[in-house]
Amino acid sequence: QVQLVESGGGLVQAGGSLRLSCAASGLAFSMYSMGWFRQAPGKEREFVAAITSNGGSTSYSDSVKGRFTISRDNAKATVYLQMNNLKPEETAVYYCAANPNTRSTDRHSAIYNHWGQGTQVTVSS
Question: What is the pLDDT of residue 4?
């Protein structure tokens, strides 16, 4: 019954911006911390950003800090990732994931117990 559905991916020029959304259903969204991860071809899945269940705390990978912003709207059961000044090396499938620890911004993918199907982000040079 749990579904996380990402949207907002696509093709963008280097230096451009995209806003990803992840709509959740089948779970008590406000009781989950949420994270974004990405996986480029031939590379391991890596942590991007996380946010606690009430939005009070956030965490970012050093590589995206200052350019990306994670946010959430619990009334809409949706978490967002605003990505600015995108770089070609950030081409990847971006995934959202749910963490049942309400106050965690954990960076380890094993902690997250629900995952979306991913949305492709392609940054051209």
Answer: 98
Distance CA 26, CA 14 (A): 36
pLDDT tens digit sequence for 40-59: 999 999 999 999 999 999 99
CA dihedral 19, 20, 26, 28 (to 10 degrees): -60
CA distance 89 to 99: 27
In degrees, rounded to 5, the angle at the alpha carbon of residue 82 between the alpha carbons of residues 111 and 24 is 50
Q: Nearest CA to 7 among 125, 116, 122, 124?
A: 116
Give CA–CA dist 58/70, Å, rounded. Answer: 7
Task: Please count the CA atoms within 13 angstroms of the CA of 58 that sit on its side-chain side.
Answer: 18
Long-range CB pairs of 40-48 (<8 Å, 24+ gap) are: 40/89, 40/90, 40/91, 40/92, 40/93, 43/92, 45/95, 45/109, 47/107, 47/108, 47/109, 48/81, 48/94
- Residues 28, 120: Cα–Cα separation, whole Å: 26
